UniProtKB/TrEMBL annotation:
Listed EC numbers: 4.2.1.17
Alphabetized InterPro entries for the sequence: ClpP/crotonase-like_dom_sf, Enoyl-CoA_hyd/isom_CS, Enoyl-CoA_hydra/iso, Enoyl-CoA_hydra_C
Keyword list, A-Z: Fatty acid metabolism, Lipid metabolism, Lyase
Protein name: enoyl-CoA hydratase
Enzymatic class: lyase
Organism superkingdom: Bacteria
Family statement: Belongs to the enoyl-CoA hydratase/isomerase family.
Function: Could possibly oxidize fatty acids using specific components.
PANTHER family noted in UniProt: ENOYL-COA HYDRATASE, MITOCHONDRIAL, ENOYL-COA HYDRATASE-RELATED
UniProt record, GO biological process: fatty acid beta-oxidation
Record GO terms (molecular function): enoyl-CoA hydratase activity
Family matches, as CDD domains: crotonase-like (cd06558)
Catalytic activity: a (3S)-3-hydroxyacyl-CoA = a (2E)-enoyl-CoA + H2O; a 4-saturated-(3S)-3-hydroxyacyl-CoA = a (3E)-enoyl-CoA + H2O
Amino acid sequence: MEFITVNPQAKPAVALVSLNRPKELNALNLQLMSELRDAIQALDANPEVRAIVITGNEKAFAAGADIKQMAGKNTIDMLLADQFATWEAIRRCKKPLIAAVSGFALGGGCELAMTCDMIVASETAQFGQPEIKIGVIPGAGGTQRLTRAIGKAKAMELVLTGRFISAAEADRLGLVTRVVPVELCLSEALSLAAKVAEMSPLAVRLAKEAVNQTYENHLNDGLHFERKNFYMLFASDDQKEGMAAFIEKRKPQFTGR
Ligand code: CO8
């Protein structure tokens, strides 16, 4: 594993997966996501593990999908790469996933946190779906899960403007389970995981399934719709311009083409 580290017994029956691409603010490139999928699947199959915490570092949980890796892609490249199969596999984890978020959780980073069952945020956490600023839209569930978590009025604002929200605002809006000082974030997430891990694993699994069932069927349609629109934008000049502008550290000039 190059971009993640795994501790299967960070606490009794609790595994810790740390995203480890600090120079790029844990930008989620294909390899990192494959490693994360493999780790989650192995932990899901490991009977010694009953709950899993995913974390980043103090500066970033993850600043999104890797823009440099996506910038030159077209719609067909994206469709054939089928990166969302990896995300689907993570989503299918039967054990509780808890995100411990400090710093940036943006774009795919926010989507990864929302794919988890609970989010423990530190006071420094910032959440956002800034894809609109680089000429695309959320692709890994942001339009669906954020809307369900915080409601249409707020989600629409965040998705259409790319504004980041603080941990305090995320707490008020119901996006996160709790907010704690940065130095306590990981230990709080591990303790929460340990508490869940004391329960009957079977009951926990079925409770997770049942809570997810509140929107799971509709969510599938929504994810599919979002994905198609995300892919479609890779046929646009604005996606090329938006991502090139990010890489070249300048303001994009969008033309609507
Ligand atoms: N992709 C690639 N590289 C990144 C990313 C990213 N998402 N975010 C940061 N980096 C890199 C920077 O390019 C920089 O690299 P270098 O040192 O080589 O120039 C390094 O990380 C440090 O970043 P900054 O210098 O920009 O750090 P700042 O503290 O000034 O700014 C920010 C931090 C505000 C987080 C800024 O880096 C930023 O805006 N990042 C991009 C955020 C973003 O737009 N995220 C959404 C990406 S698109 C997406 O996630 C779509 C998901 C769809 C599904 C995914 C499956 C296909």
